[in-house]
Each structure stands twice: as structure tokens, then as C-alpha cells.
Design goal:
Blueprint (H helix, E strand, L loop, with lengths): L9 H10 L15 E11 L6 E8 L4 E7 L3 H5 L13 E8 L7 E9 L4 E3 L16 E4 L15 H4 L2 H8 L18 H4 L3 E6 L3 E6 L5 E5 L16 E7 L2 E7 L4 E6 L2 E3 L4 E8 L5 E9 L8 E9 L12 H4 L5
Parallel strand pairs: 3-5, 10-11
Antiparallel strand pairs: 1-2, 1-4, 2-3, 4-5, 5-6, 7-8, 7-17, 8-9, 9-10, 11-12, 12-15, 13-14, 15-16, 16-17
């Protein structure tokens, strides 16, 4: 299994540099430009998958009107100092945003907000800091600090990496098909790199991996069973695991078809198979995660994804079920 080629993961490139800062499209926001908008709050939606702030305001060029500002999910905002009562209709605010690339849209991605009292809040500053040490992979783990672009294999490009079926699917893909707009949670490997809190519970016959993202709970059976021959295919698949010393090895099959997985517009299918390794770092402060991914229907060569989670026993775990109306805002 160790001799496969490594390629960049869509989740870590698409979601980190582009879509994870905004689940619209890779070009939705101009992340290299920051503008200031001042005005009054007309609506504050404390929902998931994104908190939204609507204001009646004016930017630094004098463009005035109603603005829609997208922020992070509620768990990330909570750990960055926000609450559902941080803003109220009529509050005067100043916001720094990444504007929509289409300047005709008064729409942006929040970087920071300053209240009339001079309090400044950012949307993503709640990184873990603790002196505690884990003794196993059990516990709460925060992925935020390691949420960033993956290393890209310079020898790989989409024409060589993707099958004809994948390229054909990409040609037919548009924004209305983004799964999160329908409250469909991303499966492995994407869910492992998202900047949420994760909680692992070890039981006698299984391991439960609970993500704040859409309140997903994965069950990994460690009782020696095999994958069912004709089991139901689900978004998170069917997972069986075993221990190699203190490292948990998770084998997952029976994934349901998913419209957006291996690259922009590249789906995954019935042949998708993943193998994850969860290993506690020697100092007990981090969890190292490696994911082997193969899906020959759509990806020519298998690839691996690696990330780290930080031990976060004191971080508040806030499950974030998806609100369908909130999720679909960008497709309207």
C-alpha cells in the first residue's frame, strides 16, 4: 500500500485556499483583497453551515446598500469569542471582508468585525492551547491549527489524475450541485481535514468518531467483523478497524456516490475505499492522521492525505447540525 503516488487532495486545496473559506466556488471571493464596510446590522443568522451577517452599509469606495457577509460555522465562531447575541439589529459595525470577485455583488467573506464599543472579533482565531497530554487517541481534538493547503505533487495534473468518467462529470457540474447546499456532510478524507473539533470514544467493540461538522458520528467496528457483502452504501461508508499497538487503523468501504470529492466537480463512486491511521504523537499533544484513498472509477492513481489534530480536552464541543435554509443561500 505504501508504493502509490501521492497527489493533492481536493479537500485540502479546494477547501483551504478557496472553498473552505467559503463553500461557494473556488473563485467566489477575492482572498487577496480586503475592503472595509461600515453600517448597521439588519440581520444576524447564528446558524450552520455558515453564520451570516446582513448590514445596510457603505464600503470605502462609497458603494452603498444591503450587504451579505458570510462567516464561519457556529462552533468555530464560538471558540473565537462570538455568541448568538454578539450582534443585534441596529448595531453599528465596521467589517473587514474579502469581497466577491463579482463586484456587482455586495457580498463578502468576513475577516474581522469591530463594534461601536471598539471590540474587534475575527471569525477564526480559536486555536487550541493546553498543557494537558493525552494517553490514547480518545478525547477531544481540534483540527483548526493544521487546516491549510496540502503539498501538491508537481508530477500530477488533472488530465493524468482523473479518468474520462471524472472529467465528463466535471463538465456537467455546477454550483447548485454542491452537497453542503443540501446539508450532505463530506465523508472521509475531506471530513478529517475540516477545521472542526472531533471527539473519539473507545468502546469494547467499536470506536466512535464524532465531528462537530453537521453532527456526524462515525462508527468503527473493532470486534473482528468483515464488511457486509451487500451492505447498504452510505455517505460515511461502513468502517471496520483494528489496533496496531496504540494506532487505530480504519478500513472503510460501501460509500454512497458523492458529487464532489476528488477535485472540483469530480465525484466519488461505489469503488471508493479508504484506509485511515490515527496515531498519538509521542508527547500526547497531537494526533497524526494518514488517509489512503482509492477510487479507480474516477481517480487514476491512489493518493494519501495527512493532517494533525491538537489535543483539546477543554474546548467546548458544539455539534452543528445543518440548517437547510441557511445552507442553500448561495444557490439562490
Amino acid at each position: 500500500m505504501r508504493n502509490f503516488r501521492t497527489m493533492s487532495l481536493f479537500a485540502a486545496v479546494f477547501l483551504t485556499a478557496q472553498l473552505a473559506d467559503a463553500h461557494h466556488s473556488p473563485a467566489a471571493f477575492d482572498l487577496g483583497t480586503t475592503v472595509t464596510v461600515r453600517g448597521e446590522v439588519t440581520r444576524f443568522d447564528w446558524k450552520n453551515p455558515h453564520v451570516y451577517i446582513q448590514i445596510d452599509g457603505t464600503d470605502e469606495t462609497g458603494r452603498a446598500g444591503a450587504w451579505l457577509i458570510e462567516a464561519d460555522p457556529t462552533p468555530l465562531m464560538t471558540r473565537s469569542g462570538w455568541t448568538a447575541s454578539t450582534l443585534a439589529v441596529g448595531d453599528s459595525v465596521s467589517l473587514r471582508i474579502n469581497p466577491d470577485r463579482d463586484r456587482d455583488n455586495r457580498h463578502g467573506l468576513l475577516r474581522a468585525l469591530t463594534t461601536a464599543d471598539g471590540v474587534t472579533l475575527t471569525r477564526r482565531s480559536g486555536r487550541t492551547s493546553t498543557t494537558a497530554r493525552a494517553t490514547s487517541i480518545a478525547g477531544k481534538w481540534n483540527a483548526l491549527a493544521h487546516f491549510g493547503p496540502a503539498m501538491v505533487d508537481q508530477d500530477t495534473d488533472p488530465p493524468r489524475s482523473y479518468t474520462p468518467a471524472a472529467l465528463a462529470a466535471r463538465e456537467q457540474f455546477d454550483l447548485t450541485q454542491i452537497p453542503t447546499a443540501e446539508c450532505l456532510a463530506y465523508p472521509t478524507p475531506m471530513i478529517t481535514v475540516l477545521p472542526y473539533l472531533n471527539e473519539i470514544e473507545i468502546r469494547d467493540d467499536r470506536v466512535l468518531i464524532h465531528s462537530e461538522f453537521f453532527d456526524v458520528v462515525r462508527t468503527v467496528y473493532t470486534d473482528g467483523r468483515e464488511h457486509p457483502a451487500d451492505g447498504e452504501r452510505t455517505i460515511q461508508g461502513h468502517s471496520i478497524g483494528h489496533w496496531e499497538g496504540s494506532t487505530l487503523v480504519v478500513d472503510t468501504r460501501a460509500y454512497a456516490d458523492f458529487r464532489l470529492m476528488h477535485g472540483w466537480g469530480i465525484p466519488s463512486g461505489a469503488q471508493k475505499h479508504t484506509v485511515e491511521r490515527f496515531a498519538l504523537a509521542a508527547n500526547g499533544t497531537q494526533l497524526a492522521i494518514e488517509v489512503f484513498v482509492e477510487d479507480p472509477e474516477f481517480v487514476v492513481a491512489p493518493y494519501t492525505v495527512t493532517t494533525m489534530w491538537d489535543y483539546a480536552p477543554d474546548d467546548p464541543f458544539e455539534a452543528s447540525p445543518c440548517d437547510p435554509e441557511n445552507a442553500s443561500q448561495f444557490t439562490r
